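Just wondering, can you check both lines?
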Amino acid sequence: MMVTSAACGNNGGSSNNTPTGSASPSNAAASNNGGAASNDEPVTLTIAWWGSQPRHDATLKALDQYKALHPNVTFQTQFSGWDGYYDKLAVQYSAKNAPDIIQMDAAYVNDYAGRNLLADLKDLNVADIDPATVDGGKVNGTLYAIPLGVAALGMVYDKTVVEKLGLTAPTYGWSWDEFFAFGEAAKAKLGKDKYVFVDQSADLVDYTSYQYSQGKGYIFDAQGNLAIDKATWIDYMTKMGELRKKGILTPADITTTDKELDPQLDSVINGSAVARHLFSNQVSAIEALKPGAFGYASMPKGTESGGWLKPSMFWSVNAQSKHQAAAIEFVDWFINNEEAGKTLGLTRGTPVSSKVVTAIEPTFSDADKVSLDFLDKVTPDAQTFINDPKGWGSFKNDYKTVVEKLQYDQSTPEKAYDELMKIAAKYAEEAKK
């Protein structure tokens, strides 16, 4: 199985801030490096992550497993949806109270590591992890983030609607021509108030896929400079505008309220649209909401593939933490322990440890098998995805704001591109500091 590095899909979820564990002593000893207490001393570790409800539930169960082995450890959990996660983290770092253990996205690894906010994870046991996967969390040769799972970018569609309308279903390896044809055919049968695709053109993931598929490479070059191809971007946004006017894409009012994997607000789940992009590690979450209702496909191809493989997300340890060694010890257990793997399943993608994958395969649910099939089918043509350069972690937010103006007919592709480049110039200047 080929593994590369990239960013993560944005899962919805509730927020919480809950202590779990106890502070009773244990006879085993642990390193006291980095301010960590030995196993007979109480240690409180704050841990933060985003994700869907299945991920939350599985993670809490894994924390209970760990505290049963280390009863001196108490966890304070901070879990939420994607929206606002990094805004909150930035405030916490400024106040010197950021979590000890942080779920990290590839868009921010270089940024946080470059500001010396992440601890070196050199003491982790990575013997059973593909070196290419481990490298996805390194910055200038230092491991600041350990990948937690492998996922693939593709699409999900409501197969019950496709079958009912008698349409040819999207598939792995389909082309942009087939994508557009499916949109026209489906819209003709859906009628006025139903839509074919969720308009995800304001998500930088979608444009990245399109630029890759057109043979124009990744959106950042090897030196970390923004490399959005002007003609390709304008062509893509022009096409999206045409689909919007035809009612093939969701209109702006539905698009702005859409929330991925939310039972009420996800437009594919609530029936407003037929298809959207999805990462393979999100299959279990969407299947839990409407079991057996969905089919899966790759991102459309042009001259090349439009999809990629990625570390779904990472664990990092706060460099300001007073309990770095205890935090690293937990992360090591999380990625390498087979029983933890059975509890966590594929909630963060296919586990990175080969031993853990072997151990959990007999426990795979039907949804897990679909997720693995998704991953296996995207893998042969997968593009490389690269961690965003230092200083560009929030660029996707400004990108979204610019494209939303197009969705509301408040700009043109040409004007939007010029605005985007002005914003990008500010990011480039800040990144030099």
About this structure: The mean pLDDT is 90. The CA atoms of residues 140 and 263 lie 41 Å apart.
